[in-house]
Predict the structure.
Amino acid sequence: MFLDLANMSKFSGTVGTHDQPAPSAHLTLERLLQVGVPITYLAGSFPARSETFVYREVRALRNRGWNVTAVTLHESADEWQEELQDLSRSLLVVYGRSAMQTLAGFVLELANHPLSVCKTLFTGIVDCIAPGEPLGWIGRLKVIAGSVAGIGLAGRLRPGGTRHIHAHFAH
């Protein structure tokens, strides 16, 4: 009998064979999928009535008990639609009405993680100077502004424990 280490369950202590996985491996995976992991959905505009796939995904994960934070770069015209109100729960807006909160998140990150912030800003400055594709000066400055906004968003998300960011057409 061949011992299959890939099918050993770290949680149950049972071992599978080469031909048969451990009986509890499938159950362990099912249990892990039921655990709510802090996840962030990032979109250019959220919620949007036209993106049913995205908001159905967010609702399904929340119904399974996952802690889902929705992040929108820009305010959505559909945000106030009655059928989308539940999606505004834990909604963070990066620009517009929440720009000051994003800037505060940047300052918080700079105070708590100065080396990481400096590395990110340096990368943004390098991309601004030599973007690798044709880009006007306004676009180049947006690269630096986007770096600051990204760092600020990290500062806003960190307290919630986000472990995964899922981006949907965020540009």
Observations:
- Residues 72 and 93 are 5 Å apart (CA to CA).
- The radius of gyration is 21 Å.
- The first strand starts at residue 39 and ends at 45.
- The helical segments are 25-34, 52-63, 99-112, 114-129, 137-157.
